């Protein structure tokens, strides 16, 4: 007889509470694997990471403005003689340092974010052409922003831990008691401002993403979050 799984074992001190009574568990990588429901969570993680990269490619091909973190990366590149990719890695490491006071725990999702999002974006870029008309650019931009919100909900909701930047969001939400929507929007707006001051390019798509991604993450994260349970030994009766 398969072991039963109790309801929600996550305490308020170890979780980020979401609407609809769901919670993001603040647990380490070993606990993530032992929390069960891997048949649901692993595919959700992989699909979310692929779609995240695809959404980045869609926004890039729309050519109406990049996502906020890329505005920052480009801005930094004007002042430091390093490649774009090296700067992205450096910023990621700095963001991970910000996890320390927040007591965030990296997991498979953190590693997957670094290894899978880039290749999936490259794959979609190789088959997705730049639209020729303004209307189609807008459609591609809107689709990319919405898909990014869906992908964020999927890969974070798989409970394998967020990527460096999303971990900053969930950590701040947990510590401050603020909403995912408010914290995410605040981070994106701040990143855009700093990137612009450093010389990065801001477009309509950048502003749209910064304003919309918070509410989208707030909408989709509860829908995709997988409830974790604690295995219970089978009854002898």
TrEMBL record:
<keyword id="KW-1133">Transmembrane helix</keyword>
<feature type="transmembrane region" description="Helical">
    <location>
        <begin position="107"/>
        <end position="128"/>
    </location>
</feature>
<dbReference type="InterPro" id="IPR038750">
    <property type="entry name" value="YczE/YyaS-like"/>
</dbReference>
<feature type="transmembrane region" description="Helical">
    <location>
        <begin position="80"/>
        <end position="100"/>
    </location>
</feature>
<protein>
    <recommendedName>
        <fullName>Integral membrane protein</fullName>
    </recommendedName>
</protein>
<keyword id="KW-0472">Membrane</keyword>
<keyword id="KW-0812">Transmembrane</keyword>
<feature type="transmembrane region" description="Helical">
    <location>
        <begin position="189"/>
        <end position="212"/>
    </location>
</feature>
<feature type="transmembrane region" description="Helical">
    <location>
        <begin position="134"/>
        <end position="156"/>
    </location>
</feature>
<feature type="transmembrane region" description="Helical">
    <location>
        <begin position="42"/>
        <end position="60"/>
    </location>
</feature>
<dbReference type="Pfam" id="PF19700">
    <property type="entry name" value="DUF6198"/>
</dbReference>
